[in-house]
Each structure stands twice: as structure tokens, then as C-alpha cells.
Amino acid sequence: MKTDKLSPVKSSERFIILDALRGFALLGIAMANFPEFSLYTFMSAKDTAALPLSGADRLLRYLLYFFVDGKFYTIFSLLFGIGFSIIVENITRKGGNALSVFYRRMIVLALIGIVHLMFIWSGDILLLYALLGMLLPPLRKLSNRSLLTGAFVLLFIPVVVDFLCEITQTRLSEPAVLMQQIYCARFGITDQNFAYWLHDAQSYEEVFQFLIQGAWVRMQEFIDGNRYFKVLGLFLIGFYIGSQHLYARLEEKRRWLKKVFRSGLAVGLPVSILYAYSAMNNHPWGMTVHSVFYLAGVYPLAFTYVSGICLFFIKHSHSSVFRWFTAPGRMALTNYIGQSVAGMFIFYGIGLGLGSEVSLLVTELIVMVLYIVLQLFSSLWFVLFRFGPLEWIWRILTYGHWIGCRKQNRV
């Protein structure tokens, strides 16, 4: 009997690779975010040079730009697009209204993102994901060719925007910058105390004041980085991958994965060297060139990570490496928010107050320890429960009725 080549394989295998990729992405996202949590990113060159291990920190910072910056949110964005395709397919198969469920899911995610952005950490990405995710349903019926063409156009647009802004001396984020300055002036946040405000904070009110201006900084970052074009383009690629069930046909697609791995490595690795140099040296060739480096360096290297992990999975699907990353990946929302709460406690004055006192190297070691803790927590949680804590709440609010979380005991 001939089997439809688009039919997914067993769901257990399908979700192992996707959850493992989410778990891997969570680690990289924490590595990228925690230099800001530790306030290292905000400190002056003079102050960072005074920290222990400052020489190693400069090399590590370069390596983070090289191997980490942009790559892991790229993976997360691809997975979001894949997730959209799975949700639509599963709900449609069960006879439900897939789009209404998806829109409710995005509304709840947007609310979670707003809470995260305004009350925990101003580096939130969830709100942007939710808002852009709402644009996906109208695009779901595009042909494969149109999906991939649209994705490439969206990923290339930032180069064009940066070029136009550079030649016209225009800064699109100027309104957000002005609003941030207004709130900084209102709360007394200055260039001199900016890097130490959260370290010196003795109350949550002071933290909240910093988060308010930080929300405007985040908007500025999205505008200056053309993040909305990038994320939506990656969503479309992820939706293409999901609609074709490529994640469930890894053995069949082995040759294609090898091609993606080799070409991504051949292009992404050398260009990422230039991207890291440009980022470390305040874009000496201009933002347009830096944007080209991002396009030709960050995405190919991220695709190399994904294809490499998939190729390893084909040969070693039962490896403990995948079990290690799968548990955090199954509760990615909980762990993403959990990383932020832990960052507040470890580095801000309302907690341990280590911010602006530890080197970049120590910061990344803290990330590794924290990830191990979250991995153990996730593994233990799934012994008793079916969903992560926030995933459970997200599901209840999406469907509008009680859903049991605890696993049923089997005799």
C-alpha cells in the first residue's frame, strides 16, 4: 500500500525534534539576553574594563555576536510558524474552528507579553510574536512558492530600509526615543545612573520605573532593527516547513538537510565573522552593510544549527541529548518567563543585586547553571503534569473551559 509522502510520522517523534529545538533555542536566548539582565550591556567601556576577567569578556562578547546573536530567536520564530501550521491542521482535523482558536491563542499570548514587558522585563518578544502571528491566517493559503518568495522579500526589506534611512539621515524610531527620554527625565534616570539603576533599586517601584522607559527602548529596538519584517518572514518559512511536514520526514529529507547544513555553514560562518566585527565596533561600514551581514550571516548560521540538529536526530533519536532539551522545550513559555524572573532576582537590587558587579563570563556561567535548574524542574514537573504551568493557563484561557493538568494514575 502506498503511503502519502506528506503524512506525518508518529506524533512522539514529531514533537521530540520540535521540543528539542525549542529547548536548544531557550538556552541560546538566555545567553543573548542575560548580558542585559546583568546590566553588563548598559555599562561603559571604562566600567566593564574594570571588572575581573575583562580581557576574556571581550573575546566572549565577540563569540556571542558570532555564534549567538540573532540565531536563536530565528530558530524560535521558525518554530512559531511550524506551530501555527500544526494548530490549524489539528483543529481542522477534529472539526473545530481553527482560526477562532488561533486568534484567541494569540490574544492570550499578547496579554502575557504585555505583562512580561511592563512588569518583568522590557526585552519581551511575546507581544510582537502575538501581533505578527495574527497576520498569518490570511497568508495560509498562499502557494509554497509565494510563501518562500514573500519570506525572502520580508527578510530583505530591512536592508532596503536601512539604506534609505542612511542616505536620508532619517531615524524612524525618533518618536520612541523621545518618549523614552520623557520618562527617564520624569523618574530621574540619567546617562550616569542608567547602568546601575536596577542594581541600586530598593523597591519594585523603582524597577517598574525603569521598565516603563524600557518598553519604549524595546519599541525603538524593534523599529531600528526592522524586527517585524524579520520575524514575519521567518514565520512564513516556518509555516512552509510545517505545512509540508518536513519536521516529520527527516529521514526522507536527509540529503536536503545536508545541503542546507553545508551551504548555511559555507555562507553563514564567514559572514558572521564580519557581522560580529561590525557589531563590536559600532558598525564601521554603516548600517546598510551591517544589515547585509545580518541577512547573509545570522539566518544561514541559524539554519545550519537547525539542520545539523535534525541530522543528528536522524542517527541518534534516542540520545540523552534530546531528552535533555525536550523537557524545557515542552514548556518553553514557562521557562522563557522563568528566565526573566530569575534574572530579576539574581541581578537586581530587589534580589541578590549582582548586576553590574559580575563579568560577562560569569554572567554566561550563571546562564548555564540556571538552564540546568530549569531543565531539572521541567523534567520533574512532567512526571506529574501534562502541561507546563503557563502553558496550562494559556490553554484554559484559549479554550474557555477547565482542562485538567495532572496526569491520571494508571493501575
Q: What would you note in describing this structure?
A:
This protein has 411 residues and is mainly alpha-helical. Helix content is 73%, strand content 0%. It contains 17 helices and no strands. Helix 12 (254-280) packs antiparallel against helix 13 (287-315). The longest helix has 29 residues, at 287-315. The two termini are 38 Å apart. The model is unreliable at 1-14 (pLDDT under 50).
Counted beta strands: 0
- Average of pLDDT: 94
| Uncertain regions spanning at least 5 consecutive residues | 1-14
User: What pattern of helices and strands is seen along the backbone?
Assistant: HHHHHHHHHHHHHHHHH
CA radius of gyration is 22 Å
Rough outline? globular
Question: Helix- and strand-based class?
Answer: mainly alpha
Beta-strand content estimate? under 5%
- Which percent range fits the helix content? over 70%
Largest sheet: none
How far is the first residue's CA from the last residue's CA? Answer: 38 Å
Secondary structure tally, helices: 17
List its salient traits.
411 residues, mainly alpha, disordered N terminus
Write the layout of secondary structure elements.
Layout: H1 11-37, H2 45-49, H3 54-67, H4 71-93, H5 98-119, H6 126-133, H7 144-168, H8 174-187, H9 197-200, H10 204-224, H11 227-243, H12 254-280, H13 287-315, H14 320-330, H15 332-347, H16 360-384, H17 389-399
Helix pairs in contact: 1-4, 1-14, 1-15, 1-16, 3-12, 4-5, 4-11, 4-13, 5-6, 5-17, 6-11, 7-11, 7-13, 8-10, 12-13, 14-16, 15-16
